[in-house]
Amino acid sequence: MCIPLNVFPVFHGRTRQQPSWRSSVLRVLVALWMLGPWGLAVALDLNTANAQELQQIKGIGPRTAELILEERQRGGPFDSLQDLADRVKGIGAKKIITMEQSGLKVETGKAAGKALANKTDADIRRKP
Fold first, then answer.
1. pLDDT for the residue 111
2. CA-derived radius of gyration, the chain
3. Which structural domain, as residue segments, surrounds residue 83?
4. At the top level of its lineage, which domain of life is listed (predicted)?
C-alpha cells in the first residue's frame, strides 16, 4: 500500500503548531508584566531596610516606616515579625500577614550580630 506524499502539507521553516522561541519569551515577559511588582518582589530584611525600602512593602506607608525605624533605633533590631507587632503601635496580626506575604522578613542571625556591633561601637565612643 502506497501513501501519496501530497496528502501531508509541507511548511517551509517551522509548522504552525511550533511557536518560535521569540513568542515564548514574549509570553513570559507579558505574564511578568501582568503580575506587576508583586511578581518580582524579593525578600526584604526588616532590620536592615531603610524607609524607602520599607514603603515598598504592602501595608507600610511613610508614617509606619518612620515608626519602625524609630523603634529599631531605640530598642535595637527586631527578633521576629511578632516582635515588630509588639513594639510598633498600629501593626497587628492581619497587617503582619500582609507584610510577610509582600516579602518582609526578619533574619535573626544578622539581628543579633548587628545589635552586638552597635553596642560595641557605642561603648567605644563613650570611653576616653
1. 46
2. 27
3. 44-126
4. Bacteria
